[in-house]
Amino acid sequence: MKHVNRIRIKHDVDKCVGNKNCLLYASNYFSFSKQKAHLQDNYKKANAEYKDITVSHVELNKLIKAAYSCPVNVISIYDLKKNKVIVDNSIHSESALDIVAEKQTSHEMIFDKTGYFLVKVNQELKQIEVGLCRKRNIVAVKIIGKTPEDIYKTIIKHKLLSRFDHAAYLGRELQKAYIALQQNLDYVQDDELKFF
Ligand code: SF4
What is the pTM of this model? Predict the structure, then answer.
C-alpha cells in the first residue's frame, strides 16, 4: 500500500441524521441500519463509534470527502502517527465577530414582487395551508403540506418568493403553524402562539 496513513475515524452516531452522504463516498467504511450510518467493525466509547485503520492516500481522501459531506459534522478523522486532526468536527468560534441583534421596533416589510402569503392551520386534515396572493385577498397558488420543510422547499422550488426577509418571515410563520398543529393550539398569522 503506497503512502500509508494510520488514522482514527470517529463517528458520533447519536447525532447522525441518516442522510447517507457518507456512504456515497466511503461505502467500504460505513454501513446503514436503524436510520443511521455505522462505522463498520467499530469499537464504542461514550456513545461514539471509533475505528483505527491503516489506509492509502486514496482511501483517506474518500473518508475525508465523506466527513466533509456530512451535514451535521459527526465524522472526524485523526492522524495517529502525526497526532493531529485531519477533519475536525468541533465548532470554533474564538475568532468570530459577535454582533448583538438589534431590537426591532418596526415590523414593516417591503412587499415581495411575487406576492404575499396567507398561512392557515387545518386541524381536521392535520395540514398547513399556504395561499400566495398576487392581488389583495385573491389566492393565486395554494401550497398544502404537513411540515415547514416540505412547504418552504416547495415554495422555493416553484420560485414563489424572491426576498430574504420574506423567506425568513415565512419560515417563522410555518414553524408557528406547525407547533400549533402539533399542540392543538390556535394559530393566528403574525400573532404570538398562546400556550396557556
Ligand atoms: S453523512 Fe453524517 S448524518 Fe449522513 S448518514 Fe453519514 S454520518 Fe449520518
Answer: 0.67
